[in-house]
Design a protein that fits this description.
Strand content: 15-25%
Distance between the termini: 39 Å
Mean pLDDT: 95
Shape: globular
Oligomer: single chain
Largest sheet: 8 strands, antiparallel
Number of strands: 30
């Protein structure tokens, strides 16, 4: 909540007050027209556009198009006139500003009192996008005359297809209006994304609005062929108030195969919604949010900022994705901005999967795995483009086809293939459900393994397998040889795939058709994979040549040159030893039980001092490893950074939208870090500690049909079985039986 309105921070406020329901979402921009700087953004899950890839030097293998999220038709538009003058907070005199995001119920409220001459009116906007009826957006406008004389009120409620994307190449518009229908008290717009030359689907969206109000409906002319408007007018005497509800149904061609079906669905849903009151619609929505919080809330006492941070993280994750649609995934910005194109990255498998496993039903995570399986054809295409066998899952995608235009990231950061394989293992290990890995998952693993077997090369000089020309998770190093993280993931994937092939049914083995020669080759790569190591430092070397850099710690960088990505040339960054995000340490986190305490300590101590954490994904991993090593202050410092990354605008880039996939970091740091949660041989293990800055923390965790509550205070750790059959867990090396 804030009572301050600072025009220079408006984009920041818009990002931080974004809401969504997995199907659609929006930034916290104003309903009414605002003539100052703003980034208006409404986004629909799975609706995107393939923009032509534009690069200075075309290289063979580049994707033809760059996928981007499309700013949707503006269906929340509501302009207000007081005595004939339109409200515009960039110009008007106003007071009592309040902006409140209720994360418990997912309700955004904005209020202010505007003065126009003798008129003084209190204005309150409320909005939510329903999780009970995902196609539904609801707004409620309350106007109260707080002046001493009568005022004339006019409200223009509109749906406007004349929208643009800020990142469009040449200020293009991406929507073509198919039809409009403006009636006296309702209206609709159907629009289709503009044609593209790449053969990707065009998307049609239809938005229909209806209203509930005691204001008088006024028939007006349609303003343009791209917009419909309903006008409502009335007079308010001193202390009198009025309300107007706007209910919009949003449907897309992702769910309907014709414009007629789209229109019918929109009208049917609108009729259903019209039969319910505002309170009924909101209560159904709020109840689902209550259930989500009951399963996943993390409570922290003694540090208000830490508490706010973790709840903000979970709220935005749930607003972006809750697994209802296996065709969707988790974009790095979710529904909060256009940057990164709104597409799927490896962030999902590496960071989101561990969190969703712990706070939702397993089917939510399984849908994330199915998303990749269903896009195998695109992964075959990506590998073939590079002249390689098997499947290369994309760095950035909407449909399985690679659609990113930075060569060093798109075609060198191939560790994502290993991250996707690891997510299959992570799901299977955590849930105990092997039905995916023995069927769809075995196919994904096999095709990834075929890619790795073709991508490695054998060094005659060292008699080992190597992988050259890659970018690891640390994107401040491009085109390096033998990135340790990439190599160990390739080795591990081949080893895991060979193990799974021994478990699949004869029918599935026949479908996979892995020959004995292939298996022999894969085992040879496992046995002779080169993993850079320095025995004097007892560290895994990030890549060949890393130790030849000018190894000065981050502490020697002048403060006015941080973040370096906003102050240094790319040349200087590439030559430096500074690490954008965990690279070697990402691998140690993945396989945290496979390394000795000495190995973890020497690698953490070495790499931490070179890490600038200029990736939003970085601090959480370091926090877990710091906690594992007993570095409490460092663990808490990095938790605070990950949990409040956007709230405190650490990297000076929250104006573009929130870092949704990085919001997994707060949960990871608390549960895996401070509580020491691990899964070993199907059993939950904990090794909790209470940070000195906190008085208490607690969380609930879903595990194999159990809901477990973990409560840590100054007296120690306490465990409770909320639901499920009795279960035995390990706490600091001792068995503890939990029963209701």
């Amino acid at each position: 909540m804030t009572h301050d309105f600072k025009p220079e921070d408006k984009r920041l406020q818009e990002s931080m007050t974004s809401i969504g329901n997995g199907y659609m979402g929006m930034r916290g921009f104003f309903e009414e027209d605002y003539s100052g700087d703003s980034l208006s953004g409404l986004y629909l899950g799975g609706v995107w556009y393939p923009d032509k890839t534009r690069v200075g030097w075309w290289k063979n293998g580049y994707p033809e198009y760059f996928g981007k999220v499309v700013n949707a038709v503006n269906f929340i538009k509501m302009n207000i006139k007081i005595n004939g003058e339109k409200i515009d907070l960039a110009k008007d005199t106003f007071s009592d500003f309040n902006l409140d995001l209720d994360m418990k119920k997912s309700l955004l409220t904005r209020s202010f009192t505007v003065t126009k001459g003798e008129a003084k009116v209190a204005v309150t906007f409320e909005r939510f996008v329903s999780v009970a009826q995902q196609e539904l957006s609801v707004q409620r406008l309350t106007l109260k005359n707080v002046g001493s004389s009568k005022v004339a009120i006019v409200v223009d409620s509109a749906i406007d297809a004349d929208v643009k994307n800020e990142d469009a190449n040449y200020d293009e518009r991406f929507w073509e209006v198919v039809s409009t229908d403006q009636q006296a008290d309702r209206g609709s717009v159907m629009a289709e994304t503009t044609p593209n030359p790449f053969g990707t689907p065009r998307f049609t969206s239809a938005m229909g609005m209806r209203h509930v109000t005691d204001l008088k409906n006024v028939k007006v002319d349609q303003p343009s062929d791209k917009e419909v408007v309903n006008e409502f007018a009335g007079e308010l005497g001193p202390n009198e108030s009025t309300q107007l509800e706007k209910r919009v149904i949003v449907v897309t061609s992702r769910d309907y195969d014709s414009n007629e079906a789209l229109t019918k669905a929109m009208d049917t849903l609108s009729d259903q919604v019209a039969a319910q009151s505002y309170d009924q619609l909101f209560d159904a929505h709020a109840k689902i949010w209550e259930d989500r919080w009951n399963k996943s809330d993390i409570q922290i006492d003694g540090d208000i900022e830490a508490q706010q941070g973790i709840r903000f993280n979970l709220f935005q994750l749930f607003s972006t994705y809750y697994g209802e649609d296996s065709r969707l995934n988790i974009g790095p910005k979710g529904f909060t901005g256009e940057k990164y194109g709104g597409a799927t990255y490896w962030d999902t498998e590496a960071f989101a999967v561990p969190v969703y496993l712990g706070i939702t039903d397993p089917k939510v995570t399984r849908n994330l795995l199915m998303y990749r399986y269903k896009q195998l054809d695109g992964a075959y295409h990506n590998a073939k483009q590079q002249g390689l066998k098997g499947a290369l899952f994309p760095m950035v995608t909407f449909d399985g086809i690679e659609c990113h235009n930075e060569w060093e990231i798109t075609f060198e950061e191939i560790h994502r293939n290993g991250d996707i394989a690891f997510a299959i293992y992570n799901y299977t290990r955590y849930t105990g459900d092997d039905s995916y890995v023995l069927h769809e998952g075995s196919k994904v693993l096999t095709e990834i393994s075929r890619f790795w077997a073709d991508r490695v090369h054998f060094s005659q000089r060292k008699q080992q397998y190597m992988i050259h020309g890659v970018t690891g998770p640390d994107e401040y190093e491009n085109n390096v040889d033998n990135n340790w993280y990439t190599n160990i993931l390739a080795q591990w994937t081949l080893k895991y795939t060979l193990a799974i092939l021994k478990q699949v049914s004869p029918e599935q083995a026949k479908k996979l058709n892995v020959s004995d020669d292939e298996k022999k080759q894969w085992q040879d790569i496992v046995d002779r994979m080169y993993l850079p190591y320095d025995k004097d430092l007892n560290i895994f070397v990030q890549h060949d040549g890393f130790l030849d850099k000018d190894l000065k710690p981050v502490s020697e960088i002048p403060a006015d040159q941080l973040p370096i990505n906003q102050h240094w040339s790319w040349d200087k960054i590439l030559r430096s030893p500074y690490i954008k995000q965990g690279d070697v340490l990402q691998g140690i986190w993945d396989f945290i039980d496979d390394f000795t305490p000495e190995q973890k300590k020497s690698n953490f101590d070495f790499y931490e001092k070179f890490t600038v954490h200029e990736s939003s994904l970085s601090p959480a991993i370091y926090s877990v490893l710091a906690a594992d090593l007993g570095y409490e202050e460092k663990a808490v410092e990095l938790y605070e950074r990950t949990a409040r990354l956007d709230l405190d605008n650490y990297n000076n880039d929250t104006v573009d939208g929130l870092h949704i996939t990085a919001m997994t970091g707060g949960w990871i740091a608390v549960v895996q870090g401070f509580a020491g949660m691990r899964v070993r041989d199907g059993k939950l293990h904990y090794a909790p500690f209470l940070p000195k800055k906190w008085d208490h923390y607690s969380f609930r965790q879903v595990f194999r049909d159990h809901l477990i509550e973990v409560d840590v205070d100054k007296d120690g750790a306490h465990f409770k079985l909320v639901s499920g059959e009795p279960i035995t867990i390990d706490v600091a090396g001792k068995d503890v039986k939990l029963a209701k």
